[in-house]
Amino acid sequence: MKFLLNPMSVLKHYLPRSAGAIGICVLFGSLTACGPADIPTGINDPNEARNRGVHEWNKRVDTQLLGGSEEGAEAEIPLSEDEGQPTAGIDDSIEGGATDAPARGASNALIALSNFGTNLDNPRRVVNSLLQVRPGDAAHNTLRFGINSTVGILGLIDVAGAAGLPEIDTDFGETLHVWGVSEGNFQELPVVGPSTQRDTAGMAVDFVMNPLWYVFPWPQNLVANGFTWAGEATDRFRYSDTVDSIYRDSADSYAQSRLIYLQNRRFEMSRGEVTENDESIDLFEELYGD
């Protein structure tokens, strides 16, 4: 309950002690003109014992909330080929061949919720793109926001994605990377899951600087942000097979989730440029050791 009432207290607990250094780089990043941080190699997890404890707690919460299904959600949201986003339209079929109306209705509702939350979150992405000095990305997401907010019925339908304008996702964690802040230690956060010191700090800043807090009055701004959080929460159902496989089928779910997160995050930070350093993390070595 304390987390729900004051999420910043939890983020503060998990922020690195070197947060002052991050704050200095944030303050003077534009003046020092520091380039993007190097993409690290290997695993930096000095607090593994504590992280594993949080990971086990997250697994128990996941099991309690979803009933401990071993086979994944039956009505997983169908995805498009562009960056794993929900399909723009309404799909008549559900994973596994189910065609009953309740399953279709649940899937379509989750798609609409995800689209709506993603659209509301576009102003935050635009702000981060501007802070990263990527005006093209900012213009791209602004155009997406305009199209989906009008033709897409307030963002319920991803018309822009269907028209060839996929979402360019970014956050303040990437902004810190562009400003030269290093990745830091790996962390497992309650409910949120895998993160790093830099990304945890980025989440805190994203929470505070989201334009939705200031565009709408209270309590409408809380409702608006609530929809963006709900949209993010649908990822658990969109990728249910993958998450269930990691949590319940892998020999070491913590090591595998850590590996997948770091590889994916570093790929995002490099903007899709795979380097030889990506081979430094070996899946089987990480899961089973020597």
From TrEMBL:
Ranges of Acidic residues composition bias in the record: 73-84
Residue ranges, annotated region (Disordered): 73-101
Record's keyword annotation contains Ligase: no
Coiled-coil stretches noted in the UniProt entry, renumbered to this chain: none
Keywords: Lipoprotein, Signal
The protein, known as: Phospholipid-binding lipoprotein MlaA
Keyword Signal: yes
InterPro entries: MlaA
One CC-aspect GO term: membrane
Family label: Belongs to the MlaA family.
Top-level taxon: Bacteria
BP-aspect Gene Ontology terms: intermembrane phospholipid transfer
Pfam families: MlaA
PANTHER family: INTERMEMBRANE PHOSPHOLIPID TRANSPORT SYSTEM LIPOPROTEIN MLAA, LIPOPROTEIN VACJ-RELATED
